[in-house]
From TrEMBL:
NCBIfam families: PRK08305.1 (NF006161), spore_dpaB (TIGR02852). This is Dipicolinate synthase subunit B. One of its GO terms (molecular function) is catalytic activity. It comes from Candidatus Anaerotruncus excrementipullorum. It holds the Pfam family Flavoprotein. Residues 5-156 form the Flavoprotein domain.
Amino acid sequence: MERTKLGFAMTGSFCTWAKVVEVMERLAQAYEIYPILSPISCQSNNRFGNAKDWIQRIEGICGRQVWRTIEDVEPIGPKNLLDLLLIAPCTGNTLGKLAGGITDTCVLMAAKANLRNGNPLVLAVSTNDALGASARNIGLLMNAKNIYLTPMAQDAPEKKPSSLVAWFDRIPETLEAALQGRQLQPLLEGPGR
């Protein structure tokens, strides 16, 4: 039996990468994963790790090379390469560009190509301005066809009152619901994970 083909795109909310990659490891048992990294994700060496080390780990989990250019992901549309696409973490920058129809990175082109085929796009938000400047974009995307949001909550309301982070441990059930055309309750009370 053929496994579901999952595009797993990661953007630059590096403080969440350790949790997101743990989810990727679990998903690799059930899905055929195609990893996609935004340009900054392929080159940023920061306090959360070196790009080279992250790429090596991700490619080991997925058993294939990371797609990192627009040219790498463009065939997703015409060849219908994926059954669904996840962007985790999904930054405020990525949310804004998705809402505005901008496709200037491989992650955004993958999203456009996947939606072209009517396949689900799942977003796992991680941004400090979700209840500020990004709120409008989240609202637009919540109402867009074939776009689903992983449940999210404030992660540090006292220190970062506008910040929301997805409950990354709920990505697997969000993916399953999206494949059935269902949205889980996107906004939850309590601290995000």
